[in-house]
Amino acid sequence: MRFGTQDKDFFPVDFVEKFKQVKELGFDTFEIDGKALVEHLDQVKLAIETTGVQVLTACGGYRGWIGDFIEEKRLNGVEDLKAIIRALKEVGGKGVVVPAAWGMFTFRLPPMVSPRSKEGDTKAILQSLAALDPVAAENGIQIYLEPLNRYQDHMMNTIQDARDIIEAGKFTNVKIIGDFYHMNIEEDDISASFRKHRDLIQHVHIADNHRYQPGSGSIDFKHHFETLRSLDYDGVIVYECRVRGDNHLEEYAKSIARMKQLYL
User: Fold this and answer.
1) Is the pLDDT of residue 7 over 90?
2) Measuring CA to CA, how many Å separate 151 from each of 112, 144, 162, 182, 225?
3) Residue 1: its pLDDT value, please?
4) CB–CB of 4/28 below 8 Å?
5) Which of 31, 186, 187, 240 is flagged as catalytic?
């Protein structure tokens, strides 16, 4: 099983040095910001060649959400995602993580009345994915549709929500990412959801229940890793979390060592 990490403020800025540290910590892959990939493609290629650390996935780095309320932003996001998809192909990537939106609106905080209907939300997401799906297919890249928890987004909260979108659009290159943090809030049982939707889940993010490094909270990673192994999950497990402790680098190293031990 390959473990990956997103960027951290305690990593070096230079890509070669950054990837060296990623490798020293025990990670196999680096999930890159999409904008950074597009703007620094040659540097990323050099870092991959120098260290052997793979860039299989991208997350973020686009100017609008695929479900954005503002049409101009939605279209900007779609165009940026097309560029990210093409850049991923150049580095041997596999997929790009895409939520419907983040922090745009939630029913859990005032005004609690969305400026757009549920039908309008679905239409926006479907239009965006319809434009991206053929580009992804052409470049051999998957779109990993990400449900977020109810406090961060109102459109797509459960794995079933993501499946419904994919099936409604009949997309061939849109799959699902299961994020332990969001699933811990929204799913009745993380492992049961993985079993039910294994055919579409092709990527995984991990953080503990409070969004800090895995192993510092209450999620039973051993149990859910056993489920993933039993389902022959062969994708990447990527850290998407904050880090707490007196020494962030040291705590991060302890966490990945523990998670790799649990997955064995």
Assistant:
1) yes
2) 11, 20, 17, 10, 26
3) 78
4) yes
5) 240
pTM, rounded to two decimals: 0.97
**Catalytic option among 31, 146, 186, 187:** 146
- Under 8 Å CB-to-CB from 223, ≥6 apart: which residues? 191
Active site residue 240: yes
